[in-house]
Amino acid sequence: MPKAPIKDGEPTLLYDSPLFDVDYYRTHNTDIPPEVDPVAHFCASGWR
């Protein structure tokens, strides 16, 4: 499956969106190390 390109501003939009809950995403994706930003992870691979 091809990777979706990350466009400028996408991470900012997700941080500000009520549709993306950082705490929920981290809780349900326990494989993400603490030093990895959940929004960056979602933009890179979590959207699949």
Explain the overall architecture.
- The chain contains three helices and no strands.
- By secondary structure, it is mainly alpha-helical.
- It has one domain.
- The model has no long low-confidence stretch (mean pLDDT 80).
Features of this protein?
mainly alpha; 48% helix; 3 helices; 48 residues; globular
In short:
This protein is mainly alpha-helical. 48% of the residues lie in helices and 0% in strands.
What is the H/E string? HHH
Strand content: under 5%
Instruction: Report the strand count.
Output: 0
Low-confidence spans = none
- Global mean pLDDT: 80
Biggest beta sheet summary:
none
Write the layout of secondary structure elements.
Elements: H1 10-16, H2 22-28, H3 38-46
